[in-house]
Amino acid sequence: MKPLHIALIVLAAIGLATVISLYGNTTQYVSFYEAAQLSEEHPYKEYHVVCQLDKSKPLEYNAQEDANKLVFYAIDSLGNASRVIYGKPKPQDMERSEKLVLIGKHRAGDFYATDILSKCPSKYEDAPVQVGQVQ
Amino acid sequence: MKSIEFAGEWLWLGNLGHAAVILTFATALLAVFAFFQASKEGTSSYYDWGKRFFLAHSFGVLSIVAVLFFLIFFHRFEYYYVWRHSSLALPTHYMISCFWEGQEGSFLLWMFWNAAIGLALLRKQTDLKAPVMAIMAFAQVALSSMLLGIEWGSFHLGSSPFELLRVERPDFLQIPILGSIGIGNYLQVITDGNGLNPLLQNYWMVIHPPTLFFGFATAVVPFAYSVSALWKGGQNRSWIRPALIWSLVCVGILGLGIIMGGYWAYESLNFGGYWAWDPVENASLMPWLLMAAAAHMLLIAKSTGRHLFSAHLLIQLSFWLVLYATFLTRSGILGEASVHSFTDLGLSGQLLLFLLAFIGLSYWAAVQSKTLRSTIAYALVAVLVLIPLVSMAIPDSWEAHFTSIIKWAGIVLFAGTLVGFIQALLKETKEDVATEDKVSSREFWMFLGSMFLILSLVQVFFATSIPVFNKLFGFKTAVPQEADYNRVQLWLAMPIMVLMAMGHWFRFRETPLEVWVKGLLKTVGLSLSLSVLLAWALDIYNLGYLLFLFASVYLISANAWYALEKKKKSWLNHGSSVAHIGFGVLLLGVLISSVNQRIITQSAGIGLAPEMDANGQMDAKGIEFNRENAILYKDRQGQASNYGVTYMGQRKGTGFDSINEYFLLNFVDTLTGDSFQLQPKTQNNPKMGLLAEPDTRHFLSKDIFTHVSYQSSMDKPEPFAGFKQDTLRMGETFTTSSAKLALRLDSFSSYPTAEGLVVQLKMACSNIGFSESPTEAYRYVYPQFKINTASGAFESAPVESDELGLYVSIQHMKILDPNPKAENLEFVIQTGEKKPVIPYVVVKSIEFPWINSVWAGTVLMVLGFAMTIARRLKEQRELLA
Fold first, then answer.
1. Domain contains A102
2. End-to-end CA distance of chain B
3. Angstroms from A52 CA to nearest CA on chain B
4. Distances (CA, A) of B82 to B70, B95, B306
5. Could you list the residue range(s) of the whole structural domain that residue A67 is in?
6. Residue A59 located in a structural domain
7. Is residue A134 domain-resident?
């Protein structure tokens, strides 16, 4: 065994450990139902839920009462609904979004989101026809 | 059916552009052929032909660039690319950004740099010039095919920037209004373009993409040299010097481009920082990490003749990673994972094809001896490259049946190719794995450092590629968060920094014990004491951060000491020390500005804990929300840590900028008494919704970063009520129905318009009534109405003020006397009321201490690279002379 070989073996081990820890720490995209169950087992882990804003229920944000609290309802792709509590101001394109990815934990029947990624339908796509004045 | 004549289109320009695309593609193909023959037969006539084709190719590239610029500059919206990415209102410097906003434009930019580099290489006379140029031309074939825009059924080859709007968007010919003016005149209604993404309307977006793409383009040169050297026999050494120079250029420029992108993000995005481990950032970081490692391998190879295998492998891998990065960011596979947006042009098959073709090229060059193995290799590569071609050609309806077979065959073949390549490379470079670098040699430590760079890459690669693995294997793994990267990279950066600090104190091959021991002891001693002082000054007590602090201080001081102590032939020889110091200053800045950053608008306590449990205890199991945003009411000072912040009001931008609303925030530092203003803005973009852009005040030792999260005008307005009607003459006063507000009619003015007359009243409004006191507080409101002279129509333009909670509309005007004097006029006025709203904004402000260190470190690093490159170029000139 020469120093370089030992170094290479140690490095390979570190590399392997890095990748294993990476995949050990990542979570899956889950439904609200699964998030609720998983949060019981691993209360400190955060889960990703792909869902849609439930527009039939109220979206509550009152900046003057609490600028850091947004409460709304969302329905995931399997049809599970959940109340969502978010500790930041209302994302600006929330109502326009067609899809939301919530990152957070489930507690006592509610989903506590630390982050919301919203995907808007027309955000980067072509605008509809813009008709100008006929000269 | 009679074909429609379309009026006003400049078709000849687009045709010219198309012709130029075909010219560039064809000449690139011909150049590949000629240079290939030249390197096989060693004849100069083929080489001369190759040169001519490459010159014609470069001319073609320039023509495409010129035509596209011309189209954008003259707003030829009949072209889809121009319509899609630009608009009339754009200032010239942003028109340049339009040029590369789209995929086609960015491929064009890349091609432009590649052509320029190719021309530079043509001037060099090395024994590898023919194969190197063949590979440069091959890269141009790949890039220019991205612009071809050829379709046969479901088979797409490239996407042309010269496609017509009416072809790309046939729905534009269905606009109802065209019925009256004729479809042929459709351009008359296309009066403006879609415009440039507002987030890209930033000075840095004018210079960041060209820098980054120049960095990407330079990565092909070391690759070309490495492949050519293998092609000409694995023991060739003449490739090392030019490959080293170009790899240094690549690391320097790509690094600069990456940090510029970070600076742009810091200046115009809201996440509060310059680096978010976004997949697009990672995509350019990956080849950089590997190229940095490769450059060090080349240094070893140049000085000792060893580690040729690693040099070849890392250089080729880093170019593969450039292609992989392109695939990641351009194929739409990242979709949800990125804040960056790249529309999928349906070219992912083609991008994959390039990646595999270049991997195949590497393998092909590594197996040059005519053995059975090379035959297997050729077959393997051929089938591998065929896979994306087949999947591009099969119709969508069949795809479902074939996808999984193709996918698994592809994965197996890909793995086989990689193994075969590495085996062939080992054999070809005749790397003697048994011989050993001495522990007291510089190459030992350099090699180790490069390996740690690779470890860092491995983590970024596996984390960034999660969407790819999800797609390949049907996983549902969520995209990693910033913390997942930071947790690992923090520890991997430490050995890298320590090795960068130590390296210079060792000599190549062997170092006498007392030399390196002395060098290390004194620098470690100095850095230990410096870091203890710094840790105390910065209040850093976390073990990981302390070690990181020490490592970066050690990196800076050891290299500075070395540069000051060693006398060199030329100051340029200190380039590597300067680059290392720059990297250390950068990472030190990263540490301090991240660890010690303060969200100054954060209020005390934890928000939003869940309900109390049965014992009345807060059941907060890991739910912690920092209250990061603060509300600021207009004209009232709020407190944000040691700053008093006042929201002074807002203003609209002017001209092109008028879409933006600026919020004037006045900051007073209560510790020093200094005050400054910040103007974060929001843009109500018709296409993208409401966007907020931060504003940052830069000081030497800190930055104050602020953005608006919410504003009162976004609240749903309450309706007005308590309507009341009054008749009023000049100077008269009345009160609203609740008697909370008093209004006095002060004066009126009128001006004629084309249709008739606009009349405006000036009314004073007060909530304490009107006395004759000169100090009384009131505001003016200006309700208006219009009279159309021809029709006699009356149209009121009421005042609706949320701030006053007041609605005023002029219902009617009576002229009491034919003599049109003010006192002879009587106005019927309707008022309404609601609870007044005090305008407010919700803001988040972050203090970033010593963030300037990040930028200063970058500048130093680039300077260091420039010095090293200059030195190596000088060396090469001396060698040739």
1. yes
2. 72
3. 14
4. 10, 10, 52
5. 28-119
6. yes
7. no
Q: Which of B479, B485, B715 to mutate to test the interface with A (most CBs of A within 10 A)?
A: B479
DSSP string for B549-572: HHHHHHHHHHHHHHHHHS--SSGG
Pick from B7-11, B412-416, B449-453 the range whose average pLDDT is largest.
Answer: B449-453
Number of alpha carbons in the 13 Å side-chain half-sphere of residue B55: 8
Q: Which two tokens mark B535?
A: 């840790």
Closest C-alpha among A32, A18, A9, A30 to residue A85: A32
CA distance B798 to B816: 23
Q: Which of B747, B757, B765 is nearest to B831 (CA)?
A: B765
Q: For residue A133, what pLDDT is reported?
A: 38
pLDDT digits (tens, 9 = 90+) for B114-158: 999 999 999 877 789 999 999 999 999 999 999 998 887 767 788
- In chain B, residues with a C-beta closer than 8 Å to the C-beta of A109 are none
Tell me which residue in A15, A44, A85 faces B455 most closely, judged by beta carbons. Answer: A15
Which of B189, B197, B280 should one mutate to test binding to chain A, selecting the residue with the greatest count of A CBs within 10 A?
B189
The pLDDT mean for chain B works out to: 87
**Token code pair at residue B439:** 């522990």
pLDDT band at residue B95 using 50, 70 and 90 as cut-offs: confident
Give the 3-state secondary structure of B583-602: HHHHHHHHHHHHHCCEECCC
Domains contained in chain A, number = 1
> In the prediction, which pLDDT does B343 show?
56
Which range of A13-27, B163-177, B299-313, B327-341 scores highest in mean pLDDT? It is B299-313
pLDDT for the residue numbered B805:
87
Q: What is the pLDDT of residues B508-562, one digit of tens each?
A: 888 898 888 998 999 999 999 999 999 999 999 999 999 999 999 999 999 999 9
The CA distance from B565 to B605, in Å, is: 53
Residue B608 corresponds to which tokens in the numbers above? 């939003």
Q: How far is CA B462 from CA A129, B282, B742, B867, in A?
A: 42, 11, 69, 34
Token output for B700:
């030497």
Put simply, whether B571 touches A (Cβ < 8 Å) is no
This prediction has a pTM of: 0.89
Burial of B824 from C-beta contacts in 10 A (0-12 / 13-18 / 19+): middle
Average pLDDT estimate for B207-216: 95
What ipTM was estimated for this complex? 0.88
Q: Which residues contact B748 (CB under 8 A, 6 or more apart)?
A: B730, B759, B760, B761, B762, B822, B825
Of B84, B687, B712, the CB nearest to A122: B687
Q: Is residue A108 part of a domain?
A: yes
Amino acid at residue number B296: H
What is the C-alpha to C-alpha distance for residues B257 and B325, in angstroms, rounded to an integer? 15
Q: How many CB pairs under 8 A join A and B?
A: 172
pLDDT at B1 over 50: no
Give the pair of three-digit tokens for residue B476.
Answer: 């549902």
Measure B88 CA to nearest chain A CA, in Å: 13
Q: HSE-up of B879 (CA within 13 Å, CB side)?
A: 10
Smallest CA–CA separation between B453 and chain A, in Å? 11
pLDDT digits (tens, 9 = 90+) for B246-256: 999 999 999 99
CB B746 within 8 A of CB B731: yes
Domain residue spans of chain B: 1-201, 500-599, 632-715+841-849, 721-836
Q: Can you read off the two tokens belonging to residue B331?
A: 């194929």
Q: What is the CATH number of the domain that holds A45?
A: 2.40.50.140
In angstroms, the CA B389 to CA B385 distance is 7
CATH architecture of the domain with residue range B721-836: Sandwich (2.60)
Taking the C-alpha atoms of residue B464 and residue B469, their distance in angstroms, rounded to an integer, is 10
